[in-house]
Write a structure and sequence with these properties.
Strand order of the largest sheet: 1-2-3
Number of helices: 10
Number of domains: 2
Shape: globular
Order of helices and strands: EHHEHEHHHHHHH
Number of strands: 3
CATH topology of the largest domain: Rossmann fold
Structural class: mainly alpha
Distance between the termini: 49 Å
Radius of gyration: 20 Å
Largest sheet: 3 strands, parallel
Length: 208
C-alpha cells in the first residue's frame, strides 16, 4: 500500500464528524461507504493511517468549527483529540483567530495546539518567489510575469496580503484569462476582475 506520511484536508463547513472522516478518506483516495455510521468511518480512518504510515494530519479552514453549537464544537474537539491519541499522529490546524478561541475553551486542547500567527505577505523577494511558483502551476500558455513589481503590487492590493486570497485571486484571474482567450494574466485584467476584497466581504454579504 502507498505510504502517505502527510494528509491534508479542508475542514467540513460545520463540525460534522461523518463528513470529516469522509474527507480524510477522499484525500487518501480509498473507497468507503458514505452512509456508514460515524464509528465505522473512524475505525477505517485509524486503520488506514496505520497502513499508510500517516504521521501528520493538516486540517485547513478549522474555523468552520465555530459554525456549530457548543455541543458539536466539543464533540469535534474530542474527535481530534481521540484521533491524535489513538492513531499516534500530530494534527496541524489552520484558520482564523476565532478558531483558536474555540480551541482555547478546552484546556486540554489549548495545551496541545500552540498558536503560531502567520505574517501577512508584503511586496518583495518572498512574495515574488511565491507568485512565480503559482504562475508555473497555472495552465496558461503565455507568461504573465506575476513577479514583476507592478503585477506584484496589484495582487498585493487586491488580495490584502493574505495567503489564501493570493491563491484564490491568481486562480480566479487564470480562469478568466483562459475564458477571454488572452492566455495570460494582465495588470488591466486584475484591476477589472470581479473580486471582493476580504475587508469588504461582510458588508457585501449583508447587502446581498
Amino acid at each position: 500500500m502507498t505510504k502517505s506520511p502527510v494528509v491534508m484536508i479542508d475542514a467540513p463547513p460545520k463540525p460534522d464528524l461523518s463528513d470529516f472522516y469522509s474527507r480524510i478518506m477522499d484525500s487518501l483516495m480509498t473507497p468507503y461507504k458514505p452512509t456508514a455510521p460515524v464509528y465505522e468511518k473512524y475505525s477505517q480512518v485509524k486503520r488506514l493511517f496505520g497502513e499508510m504510515d500517516v504521521r501528520i494530519l493538516i486540517v485547513d479552514e478549522i474555523h468552520h468549527l465555530i459554525a456549530g453549537g457548543l455541543t458539536k464544537q466539543r464533540e469535534f474537539r474530542n474527535a481530534l483529540k481521540s484521533l491524535s491519541n489513538e492513531a499516534k499522529i500530530s494534527i496541524v490546524a489552520s484558520g482564523i483567530e476565532e478558531a483558536y478561541n474555540a480551541f482555547n475553551a478546552d484546556p486540554q486542547m489549548s495545551s496541545r495546539f500552540v498558536p503560531i500567527e502567520m505574517p501577512s505577505w508584503t511586496p518583495g523577494r518572498q512574495l515574488g518567489t511565491l507568485l512565480m511558483t503559482l504562475e508555473h502551476r497555472t495552465p496558461l500558455r503565455k507568461p504573465s510575469g506575476l513577479h514583476r513589481p507592478e503585477m506584484m503590487q496589484a495582487i498585493y492590493m487586491k488580495s490584502e496580503s493574505t495567503l489564501g486570497d493570493i491563491f484564490d485571486l491568481v486562480k480566479t484571474a487564470a480562469v478568466e484569462a483562459v475564458r477571454s482567450g488572452n492566455e495570460a494574466i494582465t495588470e488591466h485584467q486584475l484591476t477589472e476582475l470581479d473580486w471582493v476584497p476580504p475587508s469588504k466581504r461582510r458588508t457585501y454579504t449583508r447587502r446581498l
